[in-house]
Each structure stands twice: as structure tokens, then as C-alpha cells.
Amino acid sequence: MPWIRRRAREAQPSEERLPDLEFLALVKASLEEYAPGVTQGAEVKGNSLSSPSGWAVGVAPPYHGGGRHYDLVALPDVSLQPDVPCFTDCVVAMSGDPRRAADLWVQTAGACMLELLDPRSRFADHLGPDHGRGVAGWHSIVSGAVAFGLDGDENRRLQAALLDANVLHRVAHTFTADLESPHFNGVKVFYGGRPGAMQSEIRVNGERHETASAAMAALNLPEPKVFTAVRHYALLSPLAT
Length: 241
Fold this sequence. Notes:
43% of the residues are buried. The longest helix is centred in the N-terminal third of the chain and has 15 residues. Strand 9 and strand 10 form a beta hairpin. Helix 1 crosses helix 2 and helix 2 crosses helix 3. 25% of the residues lie in helices and 28% in strands. The two termini are 23 Å apart. With 241 residues, the protein is an alpha+beta fold. Strands 6, 7, 8, 9, 10, 11 and 12 form a seven-stranded antiparallel sheet that branches. Strands 1-2-3-4-5 form a five-stranded antiparallel sheet, with helices on one face.
């Protein structure tokens, strides 16, 4: 996995954090609910959820964030050896509910993996380089936006605001030079927090991209009245030559 930077250190798991296999069991259940039949024959063992059809999801050692934080690695086709194409994402059980964290991953990064496995625009959108919500020079697979917080109305308002802001398209020029994978690059868009302490973040292949995050913050997205967060995910692939 040469396009994902090696971790300089490994943090010790928090006591608040579920063991890897228990969290992967929740991911499996969420995947099955979201795409019935996709986990048929899949097994949770070692530090991964592996399917006989060739895909896998693993848990990486936690290296940032506090308790209840999970770093996941999706491998859509493990047969492509020796460097198996993969992409990373992280989720936090902010409400103390790890199943909700698993759902958030499945509905965003997981949806992009499902779309790679079955590319019929059932789980995520395919956007060409000239699309008004796409990224120039790249093919994009983009999940929907998922909001979570203390108030349903504020969830919906921030969800709509993030979609209307067209963040990926508007700030892509700040990070496309750093897309290194010849297969697909994972990009997470996150906006959330409490009034007066909102965070705008874009992660590229698992790493916070400071320039892109600053560009997103400059879009001046609205603040909620109570704690609210919203996220979506995209896979960007080089165009065929």
C-alpha cells in the first residue's frame, strides 16, 4: 500500500474502544442491512472482515483521536497482489454507540466500496471530470452526506448545507496534486461540532489535508444550534489513458 503513508507510531487502544473483531461484526451487520446478501460467506477473523468474493475490511492500529475511534481499511479486491489497492477512513462513536459508528462508515466510505463491487449507481454516484459536482481530471465515486447530532432538524439543515456547498468540487484544486494512488484515492469531507467550535476537515488517503481543510473552512458553512456533524466520502480514480 505505497500511497498510504506509514504510521510513525501506534497508540494504545482505549478501554472505551470495542475490540477490533467486535467492531467488525457491527460493520458486517451494517453492510448486510445496507446491501442484503453482500456479506454472504464473509468471516470476521484476525483483524479483518473477509468475503469469499474477494473484498475485505480491516481495522488499522489507532494512531489519532481518542477513545471510541476506529481506523478502517477497505480492500475491494485482495487478489490484486502484491500491493493490494485499498482506501482508509476513520469513524468515532461520538454518541457512545459503536453500531452507529459502523453505520456511518458503511453509508459513506462503505457505500463507495459497495459501488466499486457493483457499479450500478445504487450505493454512490459516478461523476465524470466535467460534472458540476465532480473533480476535473478524475473519475469520482461519491457517497451521500450523512448527518448525526442532537436534533433531527439541525441534522437535515447541515446535511443540505454541505451538499449545497459542493465542497469536493470547489476545493479539489487544493489537493489533487497529492493524489498518489494509481487505483483510487479516498477523500473524506467532514463538518461538525457545537456552535462556536465547528471543525472543517478534509482527509486524503487517511491524512488530514491542511490546505484543503482551510479552503473548506473558508466556504463559511452555517453553524448549527446544537452539536451536529455531517460527512461524506469520495473515491477518485485516474482517468483511463
